[in-house]
């Protein structure tokens, strides 16, 4: 049975889907990963894997959702009744809550910094003082929990209103604003003396970094950046009309993700290189180095506020999609209780996230596999949750669904060639599963 709630336009869907993909992965994790893995080579491989591996899975999730006409669980039930394939959807919902639990903690950190930027506290500090400030914020149990709760409330407020009034409306405002803010910051960053060294680092490949490890890390970043494997897009595409061109929408989302990643690199690396910082700082790249960078340029306080607003926008748009997975599953049979289920899901994410929020303070000595809880939650979702979900989705689409049905759904609303279909089907049936297995083998080698 089709969903009554649908996207009002193609643009609304693409912006919401892009908002789901473009979060801390593109803005924070991409620069950090590129900074520690050769810059230009990593970026080149990231583009290649996004187009050839992650995007085919994205199209696969679109097919499942629109043909199944339900959420991340019931779409699989509708397409494969009497089987256990719907556990892919349950897996996605469980992983989504775990991701939102620590994602909201980072969202809280951003709110804490944004408040301080408005009050002028971030102006005039040294790099070491910024590091001390970051440590004091993340170790303060009252502040981190309050900030995390406020971030969750912001997410609940949008998601409870549904697709048209909530997620789509917010994405129509946030995503264009995100692009505009990034362009402004990139122009400012590129105007600094010595900025071209950062551009060269990002765009000029250093082939000495071309090895198996860099390739596998770039492949993992492609999955993380598009958030494939959670069945987020299964849920989102279930609200699509049959006349929507899914391949074009998928490539639009992938293109926006690559553009934002590029802009993130053009914001961060020119500034870092121009002012003598190192690009491989890690988590402190945003919360320690970037405030210090903006502190040393004209109108730096203003541009820091703009950057933090941008980062908050990106984090929120991803949080909307993650919470929507859980809410859609719960409200399938009782859509009139959507608001109650949204509140319940949001509160659950907050409660699950408490150990992550306290990981750098009260629970700093509590370890799982030699990691604090925050790092453990991030590690499990990034290295097990997303790849396993993506692997199962690729197998479901290419081996469980009938090839004729896949062609029919993919061709509905578009006019793809048989050559494109054969290429995509080959990728998702053979290349994608092998690539994901390589990720798992790489993870086992690291362990």
From TrEMBL:
Keywords: Membrane, Symport, Transmembrane, Transmembrane helix, Transport. PROSITE patterns: NA_NEUROTRAN_SYMP_1 (PS00610), NA_NEUROTRAN_SYMP_3 (PS50267). It is a multi-pass membrane protein. SUPFAM superfamilies: SNF-like. The chain crosses the membrane at residues 12-30, 42-64, 85-111, 144-163, 175-196, 216-239, 251-277, 297-330, 342-364, 384-402, 423-444. Pfam families: SNF (PF00209). It is found in: Membrane. InterPro entries: Na/ntran_symport (IPR000175), SNS_sf (IPR037272), YocR/YhdH-like (IPR047218). The keyword Metal-binding does not apply. The keyword Transcription does not apply. Belongs to the sodium:neurotransmitter symporter (SNF) (TC 2.A.22) family. PANTHER family: TRANSPORTER. This is Transporter.
């Amino acid at each position: 049975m089709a969903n009554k709630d649908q996207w009002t336009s193609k643009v609304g869907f693409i912006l919401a889907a892009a908002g789901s993909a473009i979060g801390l992965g593109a803005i924070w994790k991409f620069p950090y990963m590129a900074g520690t893995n050769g810059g230009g080579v990593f970026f080149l491989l990231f583009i290649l894997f996004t187009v050839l591996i992650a995007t085919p899975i994205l199209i696969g999730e679109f097919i499942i959702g629109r043909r199944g006409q339900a959420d991340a669980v019931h779409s699989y039930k509708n397409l494969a009744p009497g089987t256990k394939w719907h556990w892919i959807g349950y897996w996605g919902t469980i992983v989504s809550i775990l991701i939102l639990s620590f994602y909201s903690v980072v969202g809280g950190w951003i709110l804490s910094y944004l408040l301080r930027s408005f009050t002028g506290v971030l102006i005039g500090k040294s790099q070491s003082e910024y590091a001390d400030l970051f440590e004091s914020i993340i170790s303060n149990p009252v502040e981190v929990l309050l900030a995390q709760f406020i971030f969750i409330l912001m997410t609940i407020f949008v998601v409870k209103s549904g697709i048209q009034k909530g997620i789509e409306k917010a994405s129509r405002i946030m995503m264009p604003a995100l692009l505009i803010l990034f362009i402004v910051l990139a122009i400012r960053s590129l105007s600094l003396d010595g900025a071209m060294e950062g551009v060269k680092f990002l765009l000029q490949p250093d082939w000495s970094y071309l090895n198996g490890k860099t390739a596998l890390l770039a492949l993992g970043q492609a999955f993380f950046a598009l958030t494939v494997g959670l069945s987020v897009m299964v849920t989102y595409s279930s609200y699509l009309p049959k006349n929507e061109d899914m391949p074009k929408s998928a490539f639009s989302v992938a293109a926006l993700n690559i553009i934002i990643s590029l802009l993130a690199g053009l914001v961060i690396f020119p500034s870092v290189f121009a002012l003598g910082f190192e690009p491989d700082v890690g988590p402190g790249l945003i919360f320690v180095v970037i405030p210090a960078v903006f502190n040393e340029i004209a109108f730096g306080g203003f541009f820091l506020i703009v950057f933090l607003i941008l980062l908050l926008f990106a984090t929120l748009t991803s949080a909307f999609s993650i919470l929507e997975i859980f809410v859609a599953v719960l409200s399938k049979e009782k859509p009139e209780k959507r608001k109650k289920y949204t509140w319940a899901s949001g509160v659950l994410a907050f409660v699950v996230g408490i150990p992550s929020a306290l990981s750098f303070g009260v629970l700093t000595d509590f370890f799982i596999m030699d990691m604090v809880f925050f790092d453990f939650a991030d590690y499990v979702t990034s290295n097990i949750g997303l790849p396993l979900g993506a692997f199962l989705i690729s197998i479901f689409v290419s081996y469980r669904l009938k090839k004729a049905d896949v062609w029919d759904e993919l061709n509905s609303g578009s006019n793809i060639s048989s050559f494109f279909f054969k290429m995509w089907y080959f990728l998702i049936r053979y290349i994608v599963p092998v690539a994901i297995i390589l990720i798992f083998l790489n993870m086992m080698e690291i362990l």
